Amino acid sequence: MSSFPTPESSHGEAPSRLEASASRDDDLAVESAVQSRLGVWFDHHLYSLVASVGRLLSKPWAALLTIGVMAVALALPLGLWAALSNIERFAGEVQQSRQISLFLKPEIKLERARALAEELRARPEIGAIELRTPEQGLADLREKSGLGDSLSAIEGNPLPSLLLVTPKGDELALAESLGSLAETDVVQHDAGWRQRLDGWLRFGIRLAWLLAAMLGLGALLVVGNTVRLDIQSRREEIGVLQLLGATDGFIRRPFLYLGACYGLAAGAVALALLTAADRTLREPLTALATSYGSHFELQGFDLPQALAILAGAAALGWLGAGFVTGHYLRQSRSGQG
Amino acid sequence: MTVLRFDNVSKRYSSGHEALSEVSFEVAPGEMLFVTGHSGAGKSTLLKLIHLSERPSRGAVLFGERNLLKVGGRRIALHRREIGVVFQDHRLLADRSVADNVALPLLLRGLRRPDIGRRVRMTLEKVGLGARASALPGELSAGEQQRVGIARAIIGEPRLLVADEPTGNLDPTLSAEIMTLFQSLPERGTSVLVASHDLALVKRMKKRVLVLNQGRLVDDIAPEDLAE
Predict the structure, then answer these.
(1) Domain boundaries along the sequence of chain B
(2) Are the beta carbons of B69 and B60 closer than 8 angstroms?
(3) A43 interface with B at CB cutoff 8 Å
(4) Nearest by CB to A245, which of B108, B113, B115?
(5) Is A24 on the interface with B (CB under 8 A)?
(6) Which of B74, B111, B150, B164 would best serve as a mutation to test chain A binding (most A beta carbons within 10 A)?
């Protein structure tokens, strides 16, 4: 089999023929006309990128509609993901308070409370224990409640000593055991509430993944369909390029770039939508959290996350375009036997 | 040494229609010849076998030393870069300028932009369209569009140029201009194979003529015999 004239495969026949033509005709003289493989690669990619951007700009309304649909399809799972991240962060704070609050009877003196704390610290089912004295409790109340002056009016300190117990093993058994102590007034332990929250979070995360998968597939199909329509409208052009000797890669490339451009633009619009939502909700949510004595603040996407979203959206567009173009090229080749 | 050789080539489509039947001929380097015959005689199928849009059912097509039966995948594209194709309906890219259309084969081959620009200008001058480089195909007359198609086909100095009814939509004066262009190509080493059903035109050109009838090569007329 003879070699083929292409700079992409070799510098064999084509340059020699072109250079031979130069010897036949001085006005067509070309010195080392064919570029290096890297030069050809760069040139072809640049050509494809410019062609793709040109196609986007040539139909701005159609492009905007496609980008808008894709952006919404991306924004929904991303928004859910962001919401769950915030809930998880909030729940993390709650999880950290697995502690059992053991309120001692008011008549228990501080010395006895300290001794009890030491006795309990030695028990294997207890990971850590912290004593909050009535004075510390009052100071906390004064700081967080904003009732400083009113509290000053109260004579003495009505608050009991509090032991914050971090369990090591079975929380329920420990809480029951602590409740039976003679010094115990009240045991506060919200195990049931936390279990329910855990359940909702697990369900939410699963739902977010499911929605992300479905809407991601939707975004893929939107790009795929847009590129398919573009291919249909350019069937003749593709046929001509094939007859002129364009490889599948050369034909596929502009469509891949087109898909990536759609994805990138949709990713940017989705990020803009979510940032706007973040800005809108941040202030009232922070105010709500503060009213409950929490320092919780809504967190949006940071720069690495935003870049990852843009890259992911572009990859999604590229992939959708790749599937459709590959399918079309396989079909068009089947006629060549 | 031949540029193209058909060796007992037959082509039967999946519908059962036999478009070519045991066709054999050779094309020498720098030779210009015509393939003629009625509509449906097999002219277009013959050209499709050359640029690998179709495969023969039997026999072999050799392009130089290359057996086209063994050319597949990416090599089909590389093979096509050695052949210039001119279509009756021009098949120009409507949204690209004349210069961009003509530049395509060189872009595919990976020539440098400045070299492409220089060769495009020279080729357009050669076909008489130097002043229309930036026009869109839709702004040109049918004859001018065909000349752009020819410029695109010859810019890469192909070993073989195949033209399918290149003068089908043109008046006699324009047809003569196009044929004059084709006639200049063999001087530059390019073989030219023109499919045409215009017998008057074929006779005027006084070139070798292959006559197809119902897929069979029924005559191979030398230029001197045609003159008689």
Answers:
(1) 1-82+158-228, 89-154
(2) yes
(3) yes
(4) B108
(5) yes
(6) B111
Instruction: Give chain A's radius of gyration (CA, Å).
Output: 34
**Fold held by B1-82+158-228:** Rossmann fold (3.40.50)
**10 Å Cβ neighbour count for A239?**
14
Token pair 């390029």: residue:
A241
Question: What ipTM was estimated for this complex?
Answer: 0.85
The predicted-structure confidence for A56-65, as pLDDT tens digits, reads as follows 787 888 888 8
pLDDT digit string, tens, across residues A233-267: 888 888 888 999 998 888 899 889 988 999 999 99
- Cβ of A30 within 8 Å of Cβ of B118? The answer is yes
Which domains are present in chain A?
36-94+196-334 (no CATH), 106-182 (3.30.70.3040)
Task: Tell if the CB–CB gap between A243 and B51 is shorter than 8 Å.
Answer: yes
Q: Edge to edge, what strands does the sheet with A100-104 contain?
A: A126-132, A162-167, A100-104, A184-188
Contact A1 B52 (CB under 8 A): no
Q: Which residues of chain A are within 8 Å of residue B105 when distances are taken between CB atoms? A: 244-245
From the list A12, A33, A337, A47, the residue with the least C-alpha distance to B82 is A12
Tell me the average pLDDT of chain A: 79
Among chain B, residues having any CB pair with chain A shorter than 8 Å are 51-55, 64-67, 70-71, 74-82, 85, 91-93, 95, 104-105, 107-113, 115, 118-119, 122, 152, 156-157, 159, 188-189
Neighbours of B206 (CB within 10 A): 11
Q: Do A4 and B78 touch (CB under 8 A)?
A: yes
Instruction: Give the count of beta carbons closer than 10 Å to the beta carbon of residue A102.
Output: 28
- pLDDT tens-place string over residues A6-53: 444 333 333 334 334 333 333 333 334 556 777 777 777 887 788 778
Q: What phi, psi does B192 have (nearest 5°)?
A: -130, 125
Radius of gyration of chain B (CA): 17
Token pair in block for residue B72:
């597949």
Joined tokens for residue B77: 């594209």
CA A72, CA B6: separation in Å to the nearest integer? 58
Q: How many residues does chain A have?
A: 337
Cα–Cα distance measured from residue A278 to residue A300, given in angstroms and rounded to the nearest whole number: 6
Mean pLDDT of the B47-53 span: 92
Q: How far is A231 from chain B (nearest CA, A)?
A: 14
Q: What are the DSSP calls for B4-68, one per residue?
A: EEEEEEEEE-TTS-EEEEEEEEEE-TT-EEEEE-STTSSHHHHHHHHTTSS--SEEEEEETTEEG
